[in-house]
Amino acid sequence: MSVTLDILASYRAPRSVVRGLLDMGEREDRAFAILMAACIVIFVSRWPALAREAHLTQTELNPLLGGSLFALVFILPLFAYALSFVSHLILRAFGRKQTAFGARIALFWAMAATGPLYLLVGLVEGFIGEGVPLSIVGVLWLVFFLRIWISGLIEAGKTTA
Questions:
Q1: CB atoms closer than 10 angstroms to residue 41
Q2: For 67-107, how does the pLDDT look when each residue is reduced to its tens digit (9 = 90+)?
Q3: Can you give the pTM of this predicted structure?
Q4: Distance (Å) of CA 123 to CA 36, 97, 118, 120, 155
Q5: What is the rounded CA–CA span in Å between residue 53 and residue 40?
Q6: pLDDT, tens only, 43-73
Q7: Residue 91 CA to chain centroid, in angstroms?
């Protein structure tokens, strides 16, 4: 399936999408590409909020974009790898038999699949600002992110080390 159809399918049946990704074999380049695509989407989603901040505070936009680029495209992937490894270790301690690759795919796919919702969060933050609408879409993003990630971890648990 195409990536966009997989993203749509992830909101209905996340376990089947993660199973399809795992059935393609352990390819770290694929996992890294999914992670970097997610990080770039998250970076792009920050643009409206950063433009709003630059306008309201009368500061230059470029340093804000540069700092966001560094944090989201260079640091966030390192954090995501660490978080996936910690989740793998925790699940192994509780007797789950997933591979570290399965834990990575579950987290990275959750980040990528919820990218459209994160773009909505960025638009609301940029155009409306802080408040109830931002909280609502933020909670919506978090619910779907956790649902896809946890479902992916469950599906990855069917893959033994």
A1: 18
A2: 999 999 999 999 999 999 999 999 989 888 888 999 999 99
A3: 0.91
A4: 21, 40, 9, 5, 32
A5: 20
A6: 999 999 999 999 999 999 999 999 999 999 9
A7: 20
Tell me the pLDDT tens digit for each residue of 103-131. 999 999 999 999 999 999 999 999 998 99
Q: Which of 8, 38, 44, 3 is nearest to 21 (CA)?
A: 3
DSSP 74: I
Token digits of residue 44: 């792009």
Tokens representing 118 are 């994160």
The encoded tokens of residue 156 equal: 């990855």
Residue among 103, 90, 106 at smallest CA distance from 147: 106
The CB density around residue 110, as the number of other CB atoms within 10 Å, is 25
